[in-house]
Amino acid sequence: MIPADIAPGDIDWIYDLNKAHEVELSPLTRDGVVSMVGRATYARATDGGAFLLGFDQDGDYDSPNFIWHRDRFDRFLYVDRIAVAATHRRRGLAAKLYDNIFTFAAKRGDERVVCEVNSDPPNPASDAFHEALGFKVVGEAYLDDRGKTVRYLAKEL
Predict the structure, then answer these.
(1) Residue 80 CA to chain centroid, in angstroms?
(2) Antiparallel, parallel or unpaired: β 77-84 and 112-120
(3) What's the CATH number where 103 sits?
(4) DSSP tag of 86
């Protein structure tokens, strides 16, 4: 299935999926999901079980991870969160979403797609996935308010 823009009918399952993965993604209320989807540069879902939200360098977003990238890069598309429901895994949905955002970013003239992955607590599956897609480590930070360490990644387009 080709990723499609997130529709109002997707909000509840996206909220539930985000809640199930709060450690990796960070918490959001249902209203927070609605707000993020409305402000995102890229907000797409696929197969009713996977979604990706992203912001460009001009995004209305105050995440310390987004700001870290904005302070270092002129043009980028930041992957804020991606999640795949357990019932939808092993279907290539995350790869489809990333392929779609790479195409979207390239058409806009973005120079790179960036994100972060937890290093403490570790997320080895995400590390392997992003490495296979060609992401490289470009930095690291400890997020005191969240009690975790992240690695910042970038894929040049």
Answers:
(1) 3
(2) parallel
(3) 3.40.630.30
(4) G
Its pTM stands at 0.95
Give the amino acid at 43: A
> pLDDT 10s per residue in the chain (157 long)?
789 999 999 999 999 999 999 988 889 999 999 999 999 999 999 978 999 999 999 999 999 999 999 999 999 999 999 999 999 999 999 999 999 999 999 999 999 999 999 999 898 999 999 999 999 999 999 999 888 999 999 999 9
Residue 84 lies in a domain: yes
Number of domains in the chain: 1
CA proximity to 3, closest of 103, 89, 75:
103
User: 58: exposed, middle or buried (C-beta count within 10 Å: 0-12, 13-18, 19+)?
Assistant: exposed
Quick one: tokens of 131?
């490495």
Residue 55 corresponds to which tokens in the numbers above?
């912001």
